[in-house]
Amino acid sequence: MKKISKPFSLGVLMLNTHFPRVMGDIGNPDSFAFNVLYERVSSAKVSAIVTLEGVNSDIKKDIFYSIKFLENKGVDLIVTTCGFLGEMQDELKESTNVPILTSSLLTLPFVRTFINKENDKVGVLTFDAKKLNEKHFGGHYKNDVVIGDIPKDGELYKTIKNDYLSLDVIK
Q1: Which tens digit of pLDDT belongs to each residue from 103-124?
Q2: What angle do CA 78, 84, 86 make, to 5 degrees?
Q3: I need a surface site. Which of 41, 50, 76, 79 has the fewest CB within 10 A?
Q4: What is the pTM of this model?
Q5: DSSP letters for the chain
Q6: Residues 81, 86: Cα–Cα separation, whole Å
C-alpha cells in the first residue's frame, strides 16, 4: 500500500506590521516553495515587542492564543518574524506540540561550530542593538557576541519603525 503523507506546512507568527517583506524574508510567502500559514498578532506592534523589558503579559496571552491557532490548523513547524520573541522560546515550546523557533538567535550554537580561533566573535545584526539583550538569546548568549544595528537613518529602519507601506530597496 502506498503511504500518503501531507505536504509540509509552515506557520508564521507575525507581528502586527504592514511594511513590505522582500523576497527571502520569512514574512514573504513567495520566499517558500511550500504552504505557509500566517497569523498576525494584533497587539504585537514593533514598539511593544522591541523593548528592554520584554513582552508584557497581555501580549504574551495573544501570542499563546495565536500559537494554538496555528497548531490547530495542523502546521508542522512554527516560526516568528521577530528575533525579540526569542525570550519566549521556552514558554512557547512548552505550550505547543508543534516544533517552534522564535528567533534565528537560537542558531548560535551551530554558528559557533564555524569559529576557528578562541577570540573570534559572532556578529548579530538587529533592528535595535540597545534593546536586544541576553534574555532574547534563549540561553545562548556568551561574551563572544557582538551586537550591531541596522542604520537608524536608513530606509529599512525607518520603514520598520514607522510601518511604512512601501520600501525603496535600492536606496
Answers
A1: 999 999 999 988 877 788 999 9
A2: 50
A3: 76
A4: 0.85
A5: -----PPPEEEEEE-S--S---TTSTT-GGG-SSEEEEEE-TT--HHHHSSSS---HHHHHHHHHHHHHHHHTT-SEEEES-GGGGGGHHHHHHH-SS-EE--GGGGHHHHHTT--STT--EEEEES-TTT--GGGGTT---TTEEEEEPPTTSHHHHHHHHT-S---TT-
A6: 10
The residues that bridge with 36 in the sheet, in sequence order, are 10
Distance CA 32, CA 37 (A): 11
Q: What angle do CA 59, 63, 68 make, to 5 degrees?
A: 150
The residue behind cell 495542523 is: 74
Residue whose C-alpha is closest to residue 26's, from 72, 74, 85: 85
C-alpha cell belonging to residue 140: 545562548
Per the CB < 8 A criterion, the answer to whether 105 and 86 are in contact is yes
140-152: pLDDT as tens digits? 888 899 999 999 9
